[in-house]
Design a protein that fits this description.
Strand order of the largest sheet: 1-2-3-4
Number of domains: 1
CATH architecture: Roll
Radius of gyration: 15 Å
Number of helices: 5
Order of helices and strands: HEHHEEEEHEEH
Oligomer: single chain
Strand content: 25-35%
Largest sheet: 4 strands, antiparallel
Distance between the termini: 29 Å
CATH topology: PH-domain like
Helix content: 25-40%
């Protein structure tokens, strides 16, 4: 069971789960270290629920960031030319009153990620 599903509160449903890009497997060094690269990717989880955005990484020690939809101020994406071609990029979320933005690197389908967050945020405001 995923971290997001385990931590859902009453009335909360997972809207979307997103993967990280597989473009890193084209790097010859990372291809040689395939098990390590695969394991690192397996330890990352990013998703959107109808109440929050969740980013978790780690296996034995876990770091998780849960940002409630009502406290999201901006959602930004950045991707270079290779990222534009292959559809991946970095996501940056700024919370209201937050001093440091949350950056999630190398998300696949970055435009869909941004749309899912914005859509969930709009639905949250409508249903509130």
């Amino acid at each position: 069971m995923s971290y997001i599903a385990k931590t859902n509160i009453a009335g909360e449903e997972t809207v979307a789960l997103f993967n990280f890009t597989q473009i890193e497997y084209l790097n010859p060094v990372k291809l040689i270290l395939f098990p390590l690269t695969w394991f690192r990717r397996w330890c990352y989880e990013f998703g959107v629920t109808n109440k929050r955005v969740v980013f978790k990484h780690g296996f034995i020690s876990r770091k998780a960031v849960d940002l409630r939809l009502e406290s999201i101020e901006t959602v930004g994406i950045s991707n270079g030319i290779i990222g534009r071609i292959f559809g991946y990029g970095n996501l940056t979320i700024t919370g209201v009153g937050s001093t440091r933005p949350i950056t999630v690197p190398n998300l696949a389908n970055i435009i869909e990620v941004k749309k899912a967050i914005e859509s969930a945020k709009d639905q949250f405001v409508i249903n509130k």
